[in-house]
Each structure stands twice: as C-alpha cells, then as structure tokens.
C-alpha cells in the first residue's frame, strides 16, 4: 500500500541549497563509484550540498552486510564486490538505472526506516507515471509488481516480481548507496545469485512488462518523483 506524503516526507530540509542531480553517461566501474561516494559523503557531512548520482555499471554482483555465501550461485560469472550497504546479494549491469542517493538526514529526519520507505515511494511514483503499479511489502525491502499472468505460488498467492532493489548505508547520518530500477537489463544475469536472498519470487523490468522505454525518459520521471518526495534538485556538473 502506498503511504502518504505526510508520513514519509523527508522535509523540511534546513541549511543548504537544492540536491545536486548528476547523470554519468557510459558505464561506471563499481570501485570508482564507491570512491566517489566516499568523497561526496565526507563533503556533505561537513555541510556540502547533497547529491543524487545516476549511473550504469558493467555486469557485477555486490554482497551486502547480510549476504549469505550460499546465495552466490555462480561465483565466477561476474566480478563480486563486498560492500558496506545493508542487504544481501544484488546484481548491477547494463539497462539498470542505479541511483546513489547521498542525503544528510540531520537536515531532514533522522529516521532510517522513513528514509527507506521514502526511496520506495520515489520508485512507486516513477512507475505510476508509466501506469505500472509498484508495491512495497512489510517483510521485503524493495518495490514489487504483481504478475497475474504467471502461475500462482505454492501457497496460492499471486506471483510477484521485484523491479527495484534498495540498499543503503549511513555515515554521520549521511546516506549513500541507494536504489536500482530495472529498465532493460538482461534478466538472466540475476540467475547467478539469489537476489536479496529471496528465492520465492522473480525479477522483472520495465521492458519485460511490455514498456519499451528509454533510460533518458525514465531519468526524467525518476527526477520528478524524487522532487515530490525530497524537494528541489539542480543539475550538477
């Protein structure tokens, strides 16, 4: 169920200007992304302007702090990176929009659960602009899409696929890592892991749902949704 703006708004924001919005074309190496986030988070903690950074990565797997080694089904398929974000194994690769969200919660609301729910809200609003109903689940982080055309699950419930994953980390109340939205990745690449430790449900993408959208169009909608939830953005060099 979609929560209300009032419940999950991260505003008011105090003390600095709008959130910088940066898009990097081409593939960004994961090590480079982590180094950039470390540098930016340090500057934000000292009072610098917040940042959302949109990237694509070459194919790789990341292991969060709760990752189970048994969930890495094909360890030699792609490079595997241990990361300090919460969560388990995830896949990043071409056709997936990764948004690294670096916000200072001291200037907003020092509530990690509310922040995660607000990120889910950004994805849900983005999907809604494309007439896709994204939903959150109390027992599973991320955004899910019901698949009535698929067979029912063994318990008789409707099949669901994950379309967006979330994983965050905080340092001095500044967030980093963020979310990944499947636009048109190779869904077979997810078979090398048990995504987020959940085997009962599948993974989908916008193109898999029958929406042949361009990444640039998704970026526009993602930005509009972010501004609704978190406030004004400004283009970053």
Automatic annotation (TrEMBL):
Protein's job: Catalyzes the transfer of endogenously produced octanoic acid from octanoyl-acyl-carrier-protein onto the lipoyl domains of lipoate-dependent enzymes. Lipoyl-ACP can also act as a substrate although octanoyl-ACP is likely to be the physiological substrate.
NCBIfam families listed in its UniProt record: lipB, PRK14341.1, PRK14345.1
Binding of substrate, residues: 85-92, 165-167, 178-180
Domain of life: Bacteria
The protein, known as: Octanoyltransferase
Domain BPL/LPL catalytic as annotated: residue spans: 46-234
Main location as per UniProt: cytoplasm
More info: In the reaction, the free carboxyl group of octanoic acid is attached via an amide linkage to the epsilon-amino group of a specific lysine residue of lipoyl domains of lipoate-dependent enzymes.
Pathway entry: Protein modification; protein lipoylation via endogenous pathway; protein N(6)-(lipoyl)lysine from octanoyl-[acyl-carrier-protein]: step 1/2
Catalytic activity: octanoyl-[ACP] + L-lysyl-[protein] = N(6)-octanoyl-L-lysyl-[protein] + holo-[ACP] + H(+)
Family, per entry: Belongs to the LipB family.
The species this protein was found in: Rhizobium aethiopicum
GO biological process: one example: protein lipoylation
Keyword Acyltransferase part of the UniProt annotation: yes
Gene Ontology molecular function: lipoyl(octanoyl) transferase activity
PANTHER family per the UniProt record, alphabetical: LIPOYLTRANSFERASE 2, MITOCHONDRIAL-RELATED (PTHR10993:SF7), OCTANOYLTRANSFERASE (PTHR10993)
